[in-house]
Amino acid sequence: MLSLALVVMLPLGAEPATTSPAPAPAESRDLQAHGVAMAPAALPGGSLGFWGTLGAPEVAGGYRQGFSLLEIEAIARFHYLELSGTVEAGVRLAAWKSARAVLAPTFSLGLKVNSGVRAFDPFNFGYVALRPRLGLVASISVSDVVQILATAELPWAIALNVTGFQVTPTVGGGVEFQLNQKLSLVGLGQLGVDVIKEPLGVAVPRLAWAVRLGVGYRLF
Q1: CB–CB of 149/131 below 8 Å?
Q2: Per-residue model confidence as pLDDT tens digits over 36-95
Q3: What are the angstrom distances between the C-alpha of 189 and each of 22, 36, 218?
Q4: Given a cut of 60, is residue 26 above it in pLDDT?
């Protein structure tokens, strides 16, 4: 009886070929997932938080909520040198975004009530005003916990009960430091021009400045 056998010969010292597992992809870090007080310039979708600042010449607090391409915000301010208060609501549009930076134009509309106290400002006057505000915010993540901020703002208080206005363009810069996943600290300085026109008066330009220190708490 004739039998046939098929034999596979391997070279001496060779081992059967094995498929090596593909290396796991590096874990991507969303550096914009940190901050809420002022950074990032526009919150990513699904994020929500609150912030508050103490400083000169005002104290302020706000709410921020991010969506896919924009965020909504609401802000309350109290200027203790004028004894004035402002409430406003607005949007930030994520116009440009990279892994580390966000650039967002902003627009808000608010109502300002000024007592007219002149203890610190001889040109101040009492009014109720519509207050639109245009702006631009940029944030850059320099590490997992630090974001650099740059701002430009143009708030314009248009008096509704008298003939007058107040417009205060400023530019500023600061930093936001992440303490943990939810809590951050922020510091911001601003410099510009404050132009005020009281009833029957002329427009008077003055130096405008502000310093803000505060905290942010991010829920999601």
Answers
A1: no
A2: 999 999 999 999 999 999 999 999 999 999 998 899 999 999 999 999 999 999 999 999
A3: 49, 17, 22
A4: no
In words, the CATH class of domain 31-218 is mainly beta
- Residue spans of the domains in the chain: they are 31-218
What lies within 8 Å, CB to CB, of 94 at 6+ separation is 41, 42, 69, 70, 71, 102, 103, 104
d(CA 82, CA 198): 14
- What Rg do the C-alpha atoms of the chain give, in angstroms? 28
Measured distance CA(41)–CA(37) in Å, rounded: 10
- Per-residue pLDDT of 112-125, as tens digits, reads 999 999 999 999 99
What is d(CA 89, CA 73) in angstroms, rounded to the nearest whole number?
6
